[in-house]
Amino acid sequence: MIAFAEWFIGLFQQGAQVFVGLLTGIIPLVIVLMTAVNALIALIGQERVDKLGEFAARPGWIYTPLRYIVLPFVAVFFLTNPMAYTMGRFLPERLKPAFYDAAVSYVHPPLGIFPHINPGELFVWLGIAQGVQAGYGDSTMINLAVRYLLIGLVVIFIRGIVTERITAYMWNPAEAEAESDHYASAY
User: How far is CA 23 from the centre of its chain?
Assistant: First the structure.
């Protein structure tokens, strides 16, 4: 019975340690990042940042790479995980799910070159890299990191397009069909 009581209180002590770790780790980081991003937006001007979102949200395939490659890359590189997802607030509601899908899918691929993006998941990349390095050497590890980053860009582009289409269909199936016809006639 005593062992159970010790285990029971130990469970809550471990939970308290995790909570203190969050209070001294990720929570202040997120608050400081949010403050810095809001200050940067205030310096640049809300109107200019909104214009970037409006520019990226224009209809037509020519703006799709800006929405689902450039914006997620910039957001993930500068804001890191999890703050990068807030960049979607400058897009209209109909495009936010697709931007989020692209951004959340890109927090792992650049880790081999830019480990600051998602340091909490760096152990995954380091485990893979260690195996590749042991079997093939350092140059292959660098090639793998670059390829992973580039393939990640292709994947987020595809995911952004697919999620945008699914979102459009879920909100209004008839309007989604008309928009598809509009994109097809743009070529």
Answer: 23
Query: What residue type is assigned to position 23 of the chain?
Result: L
Structure token pair of residue 95: 């495009």
- C-alpha span between 80 and 95 (Å, rounded): 20
DSSP 66: I
- What tens digit of pLDDT does each residue of 43-78 get? 877 777 777 777 888 888 888 898 999 989 888 888
Q: How many CB atoms lie within 10 A of CB 123?
A: 10
Burial class (CB in 10 A: 0-12, 13-18, 19+), 72: buried
Instruction: Classify residue 20 by burial, with Cβ atoms within 10 Å: 0-12, 13-18, 19+.
Output: exposed
**Contact of 104 with 85, CB cutoff 8 Å:** yes
- Classify residue 186 by burial, with Cβ atoms within 10 Å: 0-12, 13-18, 19+: exposed
